From TrEMBL, chains A, B:
Belongs to the ThiC family. [4Fe-4S] cluster binds at residues 414, 417, 422. This is Phosphomethylpyrimidine synthase. It comes from the Bacteria. Its cofactor is [4Fe-4S] cluster. Pathway: Cofactor biosynthesis; thiamine diphosphate biosynthesis.
Length: 447, 447
């Protein structure tokens, strides 16, 4: 038995690391619960030892901790540069991103990633196949397993905390995607599929899985087992291709844990509301409770431009039914690369979804902020109401737009109803009119 | 037995009216189903005979028809005028509002309502207590039942198709609201409660219920039985006050139907996700399947400025579990009177919610538009994709923002991934590489 390196191995060895203590305090659960969950593999703390030596504040992802939100940033060949990406990072973290993925596929990938890791207090994830493809000059057919292993090691050295790798897309399952409405919609999954078609050989990342584990273990990089076959339309949801890959991910979860690496599993995609609970439960069963990290899912395909909402609905349901982390979707999804304002809108929709999920799961304390805000609302304590809001600036701006005069800002009403129709003001009048016990008596004596 | 007037009475008499035929065609169900549902009271067609003589296109609301969306417009004492309200009506209908409520409480109420009814192809709802209060000079204590009866008749004559009346708030239930975090948050409900507290008498609208039925029947105004005790915070959801009133609404549903009037029932409000299904099922049982018309519900209180999203999540769940109509909530909720852009944002969130509900309920044909849009997406038919979008202008604008050159507009990628990483393009390459049967063979022979 080698000496423990990863949080998983340390937990199994009965050690309570500073990282476990940090997340326990943040989550208001005991460090023992954190350690036990880590040891079982039902919680991960994606914390690359390099990033941990820098600015990283450890983050727990798992069903026993609050529902997390990831924000995707990164440039594409078509648009964006390093300053724009750092601004997106800042915006995402400001609005509460629990992790950030750098999905850059354009120029200056290394400089952008290094700058992001150096600046980020939250775990950073990547999809290493993108940069590998850049270095191959864009021809996926040229890939050999060693190219990929080298890239994973390169990024691990930079301090990447978790990596999406599409090990679960197998040659024998490709035919299951051929009649789909939207085919393969995972970028990494489609690249691997193309490689397999060209070479008529098995997925080299699947075959190199154990070697990948060994590299990732050295830095404690957490797996995010990619779902190359995730549905890209509600028509393709919960199909044979998706679930064939899920079974492979279940097998890899087990193998990854055995080799000491922490494992998350990625999930759909586009799923009608009535299939979401089933999807969450099936993943938990097949992958032995590994933290499920879902992209939405979008509950309808008909609203490009508003997919932060179509997917926010699905994400809230997914979180309620057990997803540990929600990957945000921005209004630009399916249309273009998100910019700063899109990052903000995506974050807001997903902070709402994650919090609504925590409330629906009855997490201890989850509703405290709701109750405090509602109390402030009832008491016309506008400043406190704004302070407790997910986005105080926007709430204040909307309120002040139609009540611009300073004298109105502490008013016992807003412009929605005006003073005469404010139900909360009227309720307070009623309460003043009711003496102690008075109303209870009315309740029993009324005709 | 008087001769039948309302759609309910006509359906019971076995008549298939032009209105029934119209909505049957629109809903792609048979006119017999419409008639049967109307006769049972599980569907309503809010169609005031006055408005029907004007521009009204009848609309079905009920569990056997698609999920509907209502948009609230109307001025307040603080802001807005007739032109602004007509612009909001136009915006709401343009983005798919199935009904519109005029909640004006400011100046020129009659002129605004008449203009709205004259211009509107969709059913118009009101809350008559607002205008009545204006005419009383703002003192609810001065109300007598006759004031209210007169106002209902006045608005019925104008052509209002459905009216929210808070008959279900009873004196003996007031004490149940006293310890709530946010008290009574229905404007009409709080006004009635204040009246009852002042006079220590039963709700006069409850006592005048049969007389109100008689007026409404003459014009075929549909009841929207107001939920004065709806929860205004997640803390107050599903409490004794809410359900005590629901039982009263169940009784009034029965009485309203007996007197020949069509009846809808209003519902919450603020409800955590895990209580929504229960709320929908309880209403259906208590109110014998009367169409349920819900306001959201918001699934968390912490996001003022984004309550179209917090409530869109709840609305989608409500629609899935049986709500017949969703009353939109705009980003301005709790902060100010919605303006035109807020109307648009509220409509978009709710069209998404209603459609996602129809998809989750497996309504025949509900998914056709999703499938067609996804097919266009896969084929890079951008124009068709935009055409099928809920908001084509916004989708096109977002797409073009980062791919401004004309040459790119028909490109087989967008700026999100760029040409090298477009999974749909790669999938098409893969499909070209696969000959007939080729992949199935791979599927069976791969190691």
């Amino acid at each position: 038995m080698p000496s423990p390196i990863t949080q998983l191995e340390l937990a199994r060895a009965g050690e309570t690391t500073p990282e476990m203590k940090f997340v326990a305090e943040r989550e208001k659960i005991s460090a023992e619960v954190v350690r036990d969950e880590l040891a079982k593999g039902t919680m991960v703390i994606p914390a690359n030892r390099v990033h941990l030596a820098g600015r990283l504040e450890p983050m727990a992802i798992g069903i026993e901790s609050t529902c997390k939100v990831n924000a995707n940033i990164g440039n594409s060949a078509v648009t964006s540069d390093i300053d724009a990406e750092l601004e997106k990072l800042h915006t995402a973290v400001h609005f509460g991103a629990d992790t950030v993925m750098d999905l850059s596929t354009g120029k200056d990938i290394d400089r952008i990633r290094e700058a992001i890791i150096a600046a980020s207090p939250v775990p950073i994830g990547t999809v290493p196949i993108y940069q590998m493809l850049e270095e191959l000059g864009g021809e996926i057919e040229d890939m050999r397993a060693q190219h990929f292993l080298d890239m994973v090691e390169h990024q691990a050295k930079q301090g990447v905390d978790y990596m999406t790798v599409h090990c679960g897309v197998l040659l024998e399952h490709l035919h299951l995607s051929m009649n789909r409405v939207t085919g393969i919609v995972s970028r990494g999954g489609s690249l691997i599929a193309k490689w397999m078609m060209s070479h008529r050989k098995q997925n080299p990342l699947y075959e190199a899985f154990d070697d990948l584990c060994d590299i990732m273990r050295q830095y404690d990089v957490t797996w995010s087992l990619g779902d190359g076959m995730r549905p890209g339309s509600v028509a393709d949801a919960s199909d044979a291709a998706q679930f064939a890959e899920l079974d492979v991910l279940g097998e890899l979860t087990k193998r990854g844990r055995e080799r000491g690496t922490q494992v998350m599993v990625e999930g759909p995609g586009h799923v009608p509301m009535d299939q979401i609970q089933m999807n969450m439960e099936r993943q938990a069963e097949v992958c032995d409770g590994a933290p499920f990290y879902v992209l939405g899912p979008l509950v309808t395909d008909i609203a490009p431009g508003y997919d932060h909402i179509t997917s926010g609905i699905g994400a809230a349901l997914a979180g309620w039914h057990g997803a540990a982390m929600l990957c945000y979707v921005t209004p630009k999804e399916h249309l273009g690369l998100p910019e700063k304002e899109d990052v903000k809108q995506g974050m807001m929709a997903y902070k709402i979804a994650a919090h609504a999920a925590d409330v629906a799961r009855h997490r201890p304390g989850a509703r405290d902020r709701d109750d405090a805000l509602s109390k402030a609302r009832f008491e016309f304590d506008w400043n406190e109401q704004f302070r407790l809001s997910l986005d105080p600036e926007t709430a204040r701006e909307y309120h002040d737009q139609t009540l611009p005069q300073d004298t109105f800002k502490s008013a016992h009403f807003c412009s929605m109803c005006g003073p005469k129709y404010c139900s909360m003001k009227i309720t307070q009048d009623i309460r003043k009119m009711a003496e102690d016990g008075d109303l209870v008596q009315l309740g029993t004596t009324a005709e």
